[in-house]
Specification:
- The structure is a homodimer of 256-residue chains.
- The first copy, chain A, is α/β, with parallel strands linked by helices.
- In chain A, helix 1 links the parallel strand 1 and strand 2.
- Chain A has one domain: Stationary-phase Survival Protein Sure Homolog, Chain: A (3-Layer(aba) Sandwich), CATH 3.40.1210.10.
- Chains A and B meet through helix 2, helix 3, helix 4, strand 9 and strand 10 of A and helix 2, helix 3, helix 4, strand 9 and strand 10 of B.
Chain lengths: 256, 256
C-alpha cells in the first residue's frame, strides 16, 4: 500500500517552529510535501495574490519532506502546490500550522492557517488547520503532537464531510495533561480593537492596531470553552457562507 | 429626524469609480463618511494589518461626504472608522463597493468588498457589499443605482438579521433592464487556477496566477443563476462558519 500524500502549509512562514513540528508528525504518516510562505502571513485571511507575481523556490530545510517557499499567501501556497508543484498528484490530506496563536471563534475569519485548509477543502481534499493558543515563537508544542497525529489519521481513514475543513485548536501547555477532544461550534466572540496613535520621525501620524478578545458566549459547546477547560477543540467549518435562515426572512419582510 | 449615518468603504481603492457611484447614492439617504483603502486591495479576503502600521489621511474628493484614505485592508478601514474616525458615533449602515467585478459564489471568500461588510456585521451594524459583475474600470453602473438605493433603504428600515451581512451582485449592463431581485444561496462553484510561468530579466522564474470560474451548480436558487438571468442577487452571508451538520458526524463516526 502506498503512503498517503500529505501537503503541509502554514501562515507563520516556512521557518516557524510550528510547521517543523507538523512536518515531523506527518512524516510518520505519509509522504510529505511542504509549500509554505517565505515569511509571516498572519492575519491574511483568505487573501490571494492577483495583482502581483509569485515566486516559488525549492528549499532544503526538512529531513523527511520536499519543501518549497512561496512569496504568496497561505491560500496561494495551496493553489500553487496543487497546480504546479504536485501537478497530476492529488494530496490525500492537507494540513496547515501548527499556528503560533489561537484561531478559535471569530479569529477563523482572519486566519491564514485556516485559509490554507479551506482552500484545500474547496478542491475536495480533506483539510485541517492546527493552532496552538500560545503566541510565543518558542512555545511548547509537545502536548499537541499525539493529538495532531490522531486527528490526521482519523481524517485519512474516515474522511471529512464534503464542503468542510477542520479548525483544531490546542490550549497552551498546562501542568496537567490535555483532557481530550471536544467537537465544538465557533464561539460567539469578537476582537475589540484599539488604535494606538503615534508620530513618525517626520511628524506624520500612524497607528498600530491592537485589540482585546471579548467572549460573549455562555455555552459549553464552543471552542473557547473547550480551550479554557484544557480540551482540544475541533470546529468543522464550511465555505458556503449562505445564512439560509435569513433567506425566508428577507423574502417575507423586505419589499423587493 | 436626524439623517442616518452611513459608512462607505470598498476594496478597489478610494479613487475607483464604483465607490463614487455608491457615495452619490448614499448621500441622498444620509450623512456619509468614507474610509477606504488608498489603493487597490482586491483579493485581500478578510486580511487585517497586525504586523505593520496603518496610515489614515483625510482627503477632499467627494462633494457630499467626509473621506479618509487608509493604507490598510478593507477590514482595517472598517475597524479604524469605528474606533478612531467615528469614535462614539455608531453608523446605522455600512456599505462597501460598488466593486468592479463579481463577488458571487465562492468569490465571497476572497472578496475585500465583502470583508468590509462582514467586519461591520461583526460589530452589529447592518452591512451590505455591492458588486458589479464587470471588471472594467469604466464599467457602466447606471442600471445598478436605483437598486442600490432601494436595498440600502430597506436595510435601514427593516434591518438585517443578526450575524448576517448581504452580498449583492449586479449583472453587467444589458440592452434590457434588470428583471428584479432574487434572494439566493451561494452557488456551488470554484476557481480553476492556472499558473503562468515566466522568467524575469535576471533569469529567475516567477508566476502569474490566472484562473477560470467553473460552475457546478445546477440549481436556480443561487447567485450565479440570478446573474446569468439578469437579476440582482442578494445572498445573506454569515460569519459563524460552523458546519453544524458535521458535528454529529464527527462525534459518531470518528474515534476521538
Amino acid at each position: 500500500m502506498s503512503k498517503p500524500l500529505i501537503l503541509v502549509s502554514n501562515d507563520d512562514g516556512i521557518t516557524a517552529p510550528g510547521i517543523h513540528h507538523l512536518v515531523k508528525v506527518m512524516a510518520q504518516i505519509g509522504e510529505v510535501v511542504v509549500v509554505a510562505p517565505d515569511g509571516p502571513q498572519s492575519g491574511m485571511g483568505h487573501a490571494i495574490t492577483i495583482g502581483n507575481t509569485l515566486r516559488l523556490t525549492e528549499v532544503d530545510i526538512f529531513d523527511h519532506a520536499s519543501a518549497y517557499e512561496c512569496s504568496g499567501t497561505p491560500a496561494d501556497c495551496v493553489k500553487i502546490a496543487k497546480h504546479f508543484v504536485l501537478k497530476d498528484r492529488h494530496p490525500d490530506l492537507v494540513v496547515s500550522g501548527i499556528n503560533h496563536g489561537s484561531n478559535t471563534s471569530i479569529s477563523v475569519l482572519y486566519s491564514g492557517t485556516m485559509s490554507a485548509a479551506i482552500e484545500a477543502a474547496l478542491e475536495g481534499t480533506p483539510a485541517i488547520g492546527f493552532s496552538l493558543c500560545d503566541y510565543a515563537n518558542d512555545a511548547d508544542f509537545s502536548h499537541t503532537l499525539e493529538y495532531v497525529e490522531k486527528i490526521a489519521r482519523q481524517a485519512l481513514s474516515k474522511g471529512i464531510p464534503k464542503g468542510v475543513a477542520l479548525n483544531v485548536n490546542f490550549p497552551p501547555r498546562q501542568n496537567e495533561p490535555l483532557k481530550g477532544i471536544k467537537v465544538c461550534r465557533q464561539a460567539n466572540a469578537k476582537w475589540q480593537e484599539e488604535f494606538d496613535l503615534r508620530y513618525d520621525p517626520h511628524g506624520r501620524r500612524y497607528f498600530w492596531m491592537a485589540g482585546n478578545f471579548v467572549n460573549f458566549d455562555k455555552g459549553e459547546d464552543n471552542d473557547e470553552w473547550a480551550i479554557a477547560n484544557n480540551y482540544v477543540s475541533i470546529v468543522p467549518v464550511k465555505y458556503d457562507l449562505t445564512a439560509h435562515h435569513a433567506i425566508m426572512e428577507l423574502n417575507e419582510e423586505w419589499e423587493l
